[in-house]
Specification:
Distance between the termini: 10 Å
Radius of gyration: 17 Å
Structural class: alpha/beta
CATH topology: TIM Barrel
Shape: globular
CATH architecture: Alpha-Beta Barrel
CATH class: Alpha Beta
Number of domains: 1
Strand order of the largest sheet: 1-2-3-4-5-6-7-8
Bound molecules: nickel (II) ion
Order of helices and strands: EHEHEHEHEHEHEHEHH
Helix content: 40-55%
Number of helices: 9
Largest sheet: 8 strands, parallel
């Protein structure tokens, strides 16, 4: 069974067929799925999906690009959501400097606060980091993020940086980019990182792997990603599925 560690089925891209898609996951060998919150609203809908489907789990958190919506009262609400028994991680949280807004100081503030929250709750974190490699790493180090661990999702930095995160106790999330023609950097990351530290993810509805690049993504495309990792690492497809599922179960403390 494949473990999908990062998807957004609450996204409006799935409004037409969300229920039929989710209902057919397990027949298609997707055995576990974490629906990741990226705002207060999507945290709420992620928990609703987790309540509806036994194999779905939720992450509760506010994405850096949405961090301007946070204030103390809303942060308190977020803390309460994290206590839900199917919330397995705090995320996705981090820094995104691709866009100018919200300003970096605000992003850093709420990233640090959510890291602290995860540490208080002893839950792992799901990190989103784009064009902000150094600041992300520095904040994670300063707040001892390694105490709870987690995953750097949709990893987009160098192989050397990946190994720094692994040394901190983190997993590396590998998605569709590894199949792209211009995905050489990601393939170097997969080469460098031990399979025991790799998680499978799609970030659905975004980032479809080849041969579906540009189309709506879904967890059904995970085998293309697993096969690519198998090719790079010289492992069988079955080994990659088994090992990455064990990794995710260990991280999220989910028994089979
Ligand atoms: Ni995401």
């Amino acid at each position: 069974m494949i473990f999908e560690t990062h998807a957004h089925y609450d996204d409006e891209a799935f409004d037409e067929d969300r229920d039929s898609l989710l209902a057919s996951m397990q027949q298609n060998k997707i055995g576990f799925l974490v629906n990741v919150g990226a705002s207060l609203k999507s945290t709420r809908s992620s928990i609703q999906l987790a309540e509806q489907y036994p194999f779905v789990y939720a992450a509760a958190g506010v994405h850096p690009s949405e961090s301007a919506e946070l204030n103390e009262a809303r942060f308190e609400w977020l803390r309460e959501q994290c206590a839900h028994q199917k919330v397995v991680a705090v995320g996705e949280i981090g820094l995104d400097y691709y866009w100018d807004e919200p300003d970096h100081a605000l992003q850093k503030k709420w990233f640090a606060r959510q890291l602290e929250l995860a540490k208080t709750l002893r839950k792992p974190v799901i990190i989103h980091s784009r064009d902000a490699a150094k600041d992300t790493y520095d904040i994670m180090e300063a707040y001892h993020a390694g105490d709870v661990g987690g995953v750097v999702h949709c990893f987009s930095y160098s192989a050397k940086m990946a190994l720094d995160y692994v040394a901190m106790g983190f997993y590396i999330g590998v998605g569709g980019v590894v199949t792209f023609k211009n995905g050489r950097k990601m393939r170097e990351v997969v080469e460098a990182v031990p399979i025991e530290r790799i998680l499978l993810e799609t970030d659905s509805p975004y980032l479809s792997p080849e041969p579906y690049r540009g189309k709506r993504n879904s967890s059904f495309h995970l085998p293309y990603i697993a096969q690519k990792i198998a090719d790079i690492k010289g492992l069988s497809y079955e080994e990659v599925v088994m090992l990455t599922t064990e990794n995710a179960q260990r991280l999220y403390q989910i028994k089979c």
